[in-house]
Amino acid sequence: MSNTFKVTLRPSGEIVEVEEGKNLLVALREKDIYIKSSCGGHATCTDCIIKIVSGEDYITPPPFSELKLLGNVFHITKERLACQTCLTGDVTIDITKHDKATDEAKLKNKTANFSKKKLPTRIRKEPDIKKIRTERADERAREEVENLVKAETWKKHWEKNQDSEAPKKLAGGKRPKFFDTDKVDYDKTDYTRPLSAEKQKLRDERLETEKLKAENDKKIQPSDKEYKKFRE
Ligand code: FES
Questions:
Q1: Read out DSSP for the chain?
Q2: What's the predicted TM-score (pTM) here?
Q3: 43 CB near ligand 1 (under 6 Å)
Q4: Predicted confidence (pLDDT) per residue in 113-145, tens digit
Q5: What is the tens place of the pLDDT at every residue in 150-205?
Q6: Among the atoms of ligand 1, which is closest to the Cα of residue 45?
Q7: CATH, domain range 4-99
Q8: Domain ranges in the chain?
């Protein structure tokens, strides 16, 4: 046999017994105590919110579906969804906002207004209908002609203006740019770009090696005198 716990209801002061593992929405409804609910206990409407007055250590922790709706603020609001709360001990809860009479009156008001509201019905006369139809047909015909003209203009556009000397358009309407060398003054322009430190180091090393090699070659080369002597 499962345990039962006492639930004291505020503001009535009524005490009811609730079985372990049964959520408060179901348990209280079984005892004919009204708790509002629109989603039927699926944690999507937040209508079944109740306030825990005391015994917050004796309720089950909120599942993810409840946290998604109410956030992780129980320590401030002390509010829980009745449909997601089970008990592990005696508690006191406040269900002041669950008033059956008020909710029923609200609902009645809503439905009464809805049935009274008459949507305006527009009834068009025969000549008006004909006029609208002709206008629509004309519009469609005009659109068809425009589309045909558009398609014709686009067709083989690359074959048009074959003789033109203008550079051909590239995709995106861009034209190839030509490098105009006539405008460059080579004497005045400095084309040496600054190198990165690493590249500069490699360049210096290479220059140094080339210099040493040139000096060595010079030493090895026989002088003109020696060369003449050798020939004789
Ligand atoms: S009944 Fe809808 S959230 Fe609890």
A1: ---EEEEEEETT--EEEEETT--HHHHHHHTT-----SSSSSSSS-TTEEEEEE-GGGBPPPPHHHHHHH-S-HHHH-EEEGGG--BSS-EEEE-TT--HHHHHHHHHHHHHHHHH---------HHHHHHHHHHHHHHHHHHHHHHHHHHHHHTTGGGTTTT--SPPP-GGG--PPP--GGG--TTT---PPPPPHHHHHHHHHHHHHHHHHHHHHHHHSPPHHHHHHHH-
A2: 0.50
A3: yes
A4: 766 667 778 888 999 999 999 999 999 999 999
A5: 887 777 666 666 666 666 666 666 666 666 666 666 665 555 667 778 878 888 89
A6: 2
A7: 3.10.20.30
A8: 4-99
